[in-house]
Amino acid sequence: MRREYQFDYRKARPNRFASLMKGGAVAVVLDPDVASVFHSPESVNSLLRSVINALPKHSKA
């Protein structure tokens, strides 16, 4: 890695995916084999929510 990088701001472009990010959203990169199972962000979120609901509830002691 270089100690410092010179970024040419004249070549910068707007993030074309920024409009897809809703308030508080976090982007996560899935491995290709995992991504091939899902066809939409909604399907990923649905599965993750079901896993979260199946986790044991932690009580504050």
| Helix/strand order, N-terminal first | HH
> What is the overall silhouette?
elongated
Count of beta strands: 0
Strand content: under 5%
Termini Cα gap: 47 Å
Report the total helices: 2
This entry's quaternary arrangement is single chain
Mean pLDDT: 89
Q: What would you call the structural class?
A: mainly alpha
Question: Percent of residues in helical segments?
Answer: 25-40%
The largest sheet is:
none
Poorly predicted ranges: none
Radius of gyration: 19 Å
Task: Characterise this structure.
With 61 residues, the chain is an all-alpha fold. The model has no long low-confidence stretch (mean pLDDT 89). The chain has helices at 32-35, 41-54. It has a domain at 25-61.
